[in-house]
């Protein structure tokens, strides 16, 4: 391994060897740190890293991950002169960890033994006009939200939620024909976005920045119109929008994040996301 690391530092690895080394690094924190340090030095990011030393650790790791993966895909050109500028690597947008003074319910997904959040569920019990469903705060639902009820794929009614628990909720029938146990319920798009942001926040809280970025990349959300107020949620929703190609919405969310009075380190990260978004046009 030491011989391979030495060849990596000198840019002598083949593309396939570089990819293999980067994949190993994603599961080995020590190797990841060593590759990151080497990659940062090789790409001339050292001065910028010193200026941003106050960034949250998750922001630094997210950027470093992009650098390491970028190096793995970089193919050395032996015919180039030593003075030729290095190939530019575009870093991923930066996710922000939630501040300690954020809403106490933000870590709904932090319990490692909990199930994953879901976009749809079903009615589990009916008592008069009170209906219990198997979706809750873990799925982004909040008191006052309205969920659709479907049967055989067709919309048949709505439930207005009055009581929210972690993995289930209660509400009142808001119209439509008689509902039955096992009828399907669907969380609104805004709830899906909140659930994804909660999952990202709890993953970052565990120090798993690479996994948080994967969640953002794989998120499937229909709308970015959730009522978001904190700079971290607004920024992270902007990251999701950017990764999904919705650049206009990403820019809007980043701007709203700046208006939410972020701390100096968070402001730096948000401004960097905005600058990168504009620079990629």
What are the salient characteristics of this protein?
281 residues, alpha+beta, Thrombin, subunit H, Serine Threonine Protein Phosphatase 5, Tetratricopeptide repeat, 3 domains, six-stranded antiparallel β-barrel, elongated
Describe the structure.
The chain is of the alpha+beta class. The chain has three domains: 72 residues, no CATH class; 67 residues, Thrombin, subunit H; 77 residues, Serine Threonine Protein Phosphatase 5, Tetratricopeptide repeat (Alpha Horseshoe). The chain has ten helices and six strands, in the order αααααββββββααααα. It has a six-stranded antiparallel beta barrel. A hairpin with a 2-residue loop joins strand 1 and strand 2. Helix 2 packs antiparallel against helix 5, helix 8 packs antiparallel against helix 9 and helix 9 packs antiparallel against helix 10. About 21% of the residues have low confidence.
């Amino acid at each position: 391994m030491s011989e391979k690391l030495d060849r990596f530092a000198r840019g002598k690895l083949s593309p396939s060897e570089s990819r293999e080394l980067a994949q190993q690094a994603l599961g080995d924190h020590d190797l990841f740190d060593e590759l990151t340090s080497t990659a940062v030095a090789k790409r001339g990011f050292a001065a910028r890293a010193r200026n941003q030393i106050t960034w949250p650790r998750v922001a630094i790791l997210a950027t470093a991950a992009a650098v390491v993966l970028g190096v793995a895909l970089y193919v050395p050109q032996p015919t180039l002169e030593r003075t030729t500028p290095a190939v530019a690597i575009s870093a991923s947008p930066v996710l922000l960890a939630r501040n300690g003074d954020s809403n106490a319910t933000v870590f709904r997904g932090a319990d490692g033994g909990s199930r994953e959040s879901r976009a749809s569920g079903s009615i589990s019990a009916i008592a008069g006009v009170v209906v219990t469903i198997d979706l809750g705060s873990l799925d982004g639902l909040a008191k006052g939200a309205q969920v659709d009820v479907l049967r055989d794929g067709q919309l048949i009614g709505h439930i207005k939620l009055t009581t929210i628990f972690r993995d289930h909720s209660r509400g009142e029938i808001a119209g439509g024909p008689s509902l039955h146990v096992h009828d399907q319920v669907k969380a609104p798009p805004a709830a899906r976005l909140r659930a994804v942001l909660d999952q990202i926040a709890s993953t970052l809280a565990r120090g798993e920045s690479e996994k948080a970025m994967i969640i953002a990349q794989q998120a499937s959300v229909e709308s970015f119109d959730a009522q978001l107020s904190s700079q971290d949620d607004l920024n992270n929703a902007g990251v999701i929008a950017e990764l999904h190609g919705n650049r206009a919405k990403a820019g809007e969310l980043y701007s709203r994040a700046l208006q939410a009075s972020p701390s100096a380190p968070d402001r730096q990260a948000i401004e960097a996301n905005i600058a990168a978004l504009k620079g990629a046009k």
